[in-house]
Write a structure and sequence with these properties.
Blueprint lengths: L5 H6 L3 E3 L8 H8 L5 E8 H5 L3 H6 L9 E6 L3 H12 L6 E5 L4 H4 L11 H15 L4 E6 L10 H10 L4 E5 L14 H7 L6 E4 L5 H11 L3 E4 L1 H5 L3 H11 L8 H19 L1 H7 L4 H4 L6 H9 L4 H20 L1
Parallel strand pairs: 1-2, 1-8, 2-3, 3-4, 4-5, 5-6, 6-7, 7-8
Helix pairs in contact: 2-13, 5-7, 8-9, 10-12, 13-14, 13-17
Length: 331
């Protein structure tokens, strides 16, 4: 595969699959890439686990040939360890290395990792500089929040300038404070304010729930890309819908019942190959409400699926339901 062209990728205004723990694995990246996600980011990779050779961390950075372009996101509270882990991740030849400075979950942020870096922006900039220098010329990006909160003036504008100055190649801004978590509304105007003071790409994140949101976030901020997180869990078709609207101004029809059921089976089989049958069946329960939304008797199917741990039985439930759905449409 040709080398990843970082600048060209962001000139195309990508709609990017966000890093989400226990969601953005190789199986889900394949699902989303097949539906228009031109760029994906891995699950969070803990640097301590990666450096001690933990199986789970090693698996997260194991990028197969078809899993490109994908960035690897790392997180940790110690700058030298982050730099060392970035060098390990670099060997997997990702599109770029992304540093998680935005995870607000208390067990991570309280230890100084993730959004915990926002409590000391100068330390965050010094850490980013260390990582950039360690893996050069591989691009390094940072994903962060607009501030720790509840400041009236967020540090993101000055921080964006300083991160660019130390060689960070792009900045993804989740337009909430760390203290907000997922509550309240994302204020995209902060992405515009940051974009206005830097020349590197700024990616807008937070409350991108539809193709219309993706277009609006890019139009209102001038951002180089939009990142989709939680809504992709329910509706991975958002990527093709957003691309159509952004590139051609065309609103696509929603996925058909047949497409929804095909996705269920596809994702289940891919997840079983990656995670094992039992874990796949249980993990995908979080996706069924969105995947099956709007289908006749879909709620009843979900109840059945939630009570089933066997892979073959789950696939049989889908086959039986598809037959029932066809009979209902023919009636």
């Amino acid at each position: 595969m040709p080398a990843f062209d970082f600048d060209a990728a962001f000139r195309a205004r990508p709609v990017i699959l966000a890093p989400m723990e226990d969601v953005s694995d190789a199986a889900f990246r394949q699902v989303c890439r097949a539906r228009g996600a031109s760029l994906c980011v891995t699950e969070f990779v803990n640097v301590e686990g990666l450096l001690r050779g933990a199986k789970d961390a090693a698996h997260k950075i194991d990028l197969l040939p078809g899993d490109q372009p994908t960035a690897i996101q790392i997180y940790g509270a110690d700058a030298p360890r982050l730099a060392e882990a970035a060098e390990v991740a670099q060997r997997s030849e990702p599109a770029y290395i992304d540093i998680n400075c935005g995870c607000w979950v208390p067990k991570i942020a309280r230890r100084g990792a993730g959004a915990g870096w926002l409590r000391d922006p100068s330390a965050m900039v010094a850490m980013a500089k260390m990582v950039v220098e360690r893996v050069a010329p591989m691009p390094v990006t940072v994903k962060t929040r607009i501030g720790w909160g509840p400041e009236s003036e967020m540090p993101i504008i000055d921080l964006a300038r300083r991160l660019e100055d130390v060689g960070v190649r792009a900045l993804t801004i989740h337009c909430r404070t760390a203290q907000m978590g997922h509550t309240g509304s994302a204020d995209w105007s902060w992405a515009k304010k940051a974009r206005d003071v830097v020349s590197i790409p700024v990616i807008v994140n937070g409350d991108v729930r539809s193709a219309e949101d993706a277009l609006a976030s890019l139009t209102s901020t001038g951002a180089a890309g939009a990142m989709v997180g939680r809504h992709a869990n329910d509706h991975p078709w958002i990527f093709r819908e957003a691309r159509s609207l952004i590139d051609e101004g065309v609103t696509l029809a929603p996925p058909s019942p047949a497409e929804r059921l095909a996705l269920c089976r596809e994702h289940l089989r891919l997840a079983a190959e990656e995670r094992g049958a039992l874990r796949a069946v249980r993990m995908l329960r979080r996706h069924w409400p969105g995947y099956l939304r709007g289908l006749h008797e879909g709620a009843a199917l979900r109840r059945t699926l939630n009570a089933t741990d066997d892979l073959d039985a789950t696939l049989e439930h889908f086959e039986r339901f598809e037959g029932q759905l066809s009979a209902h449409r023919a009636a």
